Amino acid sequence: MVNPSRTAVVGDHEAREFPMSIANFEIIKRIAMEWTGISLSDHKRNMIYGRLSRRLRALGLSDFNQYCNLLEASPAAEKTEFINSITTNLTAFFREIHHFEYLARTVIPNLMRANAASRKIRIWSAGCSTGEEPYSIAMVFKSFSALKGWDVKILATDLDSNVVAKGAGAVYPIDRAEGVPDKYRQFFKRDKTSNNVQIKDSVRELIRFRQLNLLHEWPMRGSFDIIFCRNVVIYFDLPTQKKLFNRYADMLVDNGHLFIGHSENLYKVTDRFNSMGRTIYQKAY
């Protein structure tokens, strides 16, 4: 329950629709860490207020005291909606294009030689958001005619169940595809009944979308040749980052590749990867 002695209203929230106290935000921060591993800093308070206010309206609550009490008293009832509300899902097709150029120029040719006997390649898009990243990866693989007949599979996971469903649907507003390089536009088809595009089945068939909390047990059994985890760990504290990257190393094959976000690095986080430059890493051990 919220402590009434710590209910001073934060900042300019007096004029807002729903009062949010310091105590309210501390509870939200603690629950976010417990449930997702996301570390919310104080400067995220306004963003969190905006996102969770929608939940208060939907639930017919009058203030954040009631919402925090709900989170603590009946967590199962609101857990999924809370997680979906606080997660950030900024993404785009072929975002950080140099990663996909390196994938096509270096990683795939090397894998074709290394895996020639098994003809199998496994990729994980961890934090896939609404699907643009795994579809971009799949398009790069589909552009290699020499991979015809290979067993290529991409696992796409995210904490937010709503964006996982969106990705699986494979339909996007047409302007989302405007920045796609010309050679990959062949993998989109225009929906004649709307202003949308759809990913072609030849690309969709490579990908499995699943909801997954990275801090919980991972159900995957086999190893991966490539892991994309971009702009995800910036929301975690350092101990969580260290644990996560060591788990990624455990899941990668020898010399497997890890791609992370442009604002992230592994310095003083883990020594299990060698930098290949521009936030591309190769497993060292």
Automatic annotation (TrEMBL):
The catalysed reaction is: L-glutamyl-[protein] + S-adenosyl-L-methionine = [protein]-L-glutamate 5-O-methyl ester + S-adenosyl-L-homocysteine
Which SUPFAM superfamilies does the record cross-reference, listed alphabetically?
Chemotaxis receptor methyltransferase CheR, N-terminal domain, S-adenosyl-L-methionine-dependent methyltransferases
Q: What class of enzyme is it?
A: transferase
Q: Which GO terms describe its biological process?
A: methylation
PROSITE patterns named among the record's database cross-references: CHER
Keywords, in A-Z order: Methyltransferase, S-adenosyl-L-methionine, Transferase
- Amino-acid positions noted as binding S-adenosyl-L-methionine in the UniProt annotation, renumbered to this chain: 89, 91, 95, 133, 158, 213-214, 230-231
- SMART domains cross-referenced by the UniProt entry: MeTrc
What Enzyme Commission number(s) apply to this enzyme? 2.1.1.80
The GO terms describing molecular function are:
protein-glutamate O-methyltransferase activity
Q: Is Calcium found in the keyword set?
A: no
Domain named CheR-type methyltransferase: which ranges?
A: 13-285
Function, in words: Methylation of the membrane-bound methyl-accepting chemotaxis proteins (MCP) to form gamma-glutamyl methyl ester residues in MCP.
Supply the name of the protein: Chemotaxis protein methyltransferase
What's the source species for this entry? Saccharophagus degradans (strain 2-40 / ATCC 43961 / DSM 17024)
